[in-house]
Amino acid sequence: MANADTFIKKHYKGLFYNVIYNKYFKNQRRLTKHYNGFDDLKNSGVLSPYDDIVKIHAKQYDFDWRLLVAQMHQESRFDPNATSMVGAKGLFQVMPRTAKEIGIKNVHIPEQGIKASVRYMNWVRDRMIKNDVQKDELIWFTLASYNAGAGHVRDAMRLAKLKGWRNDIWFGNVEKAMLLLSQPKYAAKARYGYVRGQEPVTYIREIRRRFETYQNIFKSE
């Protein structure tokens, strides 16, 4: 809290403050776009072109469909033809090898890509349950494993414990350890080595932010 107070006193009404304030609170074009987007979702009752497919598989594996749509947006912006630089494909950016292992041939087909990703999410979640993660935190650890791999997540959990942080809570605890694993002195001691820690941290925070927006628009089904 003291650090926050110092930061605010230093920057209040200064150049940094004015740039950020104008960008997010006085930029009418940005604000209009934000509110229009919110209203469009609320009025249409549709989050994505694939809501109905997501709902079927979310129900089958006991996931909140709104969270899966938030994840899908983060992964591909709802583009079934998306392909990453490392070869991940489809709406949820599933690696072809992973899809093949769970019996899916073409993840660029929305039905197949969604089925593959939700099956894989379920498999990852089952693995994370064994790590004694709190039930209400399990989805964040599952997403972290989906994005960075279970090995790196477990490294972050071990490091969090060494640092005196909670190793069963993601936000403000294990996510901090994940960031440290991008530093050589920590990565060298980790079982699975270096990881670009900022990526899963940003990934999960963006999904949570969008998920919370979806929760405010639509009730769970």
Q: What this model shows, in words?
A:
The termini are far apart. With 221 residues, this protein is mainly α. The protein has helices at residues 2-11, 15-26, 28-44, 51-61, 65-76, 96-101, 110-129, 138-148, 150-162, 170-180, 184-187, 198-217. Helix 4 runs parallel beside helix 7 (110-129). Helix content is 67%, strand content 0%. The longest helix has 20 residues, at 110-129. It folds into two domains: 2-44, no CATH class; 51-217, Lysozyme, CATH 1.10.530.
Highlighted features:
221 residues, mainly alpha, Lysozyme, 2 domains, 12 helices
Radius of gyration: 19 Å
The ordered string of helix (H) and strand (E) elements is HHHHHHHHHHHH
Determine the fraction of residues in helical runs and give it as a percent range: 55-70%
Low-confidence stretches: 30-36
**Spatial separation of the terminal alpha carbons:** 39 Å
Q: How many β-strand stretches?
A: 0
Identify the CATH class of the largest domain: Mainly Alpha
User: How many helices?
Assistant: 12
Strand content: under 5%
Average pLDDT level? 87
**How does CATH name the architecture of the largest domain?**
Orthogonal Bundle
Structural class comes to: mainly alpha
Fill in the CATH topology of the largest domain.
Lysozyme
How many domain units? 2
**Quick one: biggest sheet?**
none
Cα shape: globular
Describe, in short, the structure shown:
By secondary structure, this protein is mainly alpha-helical.
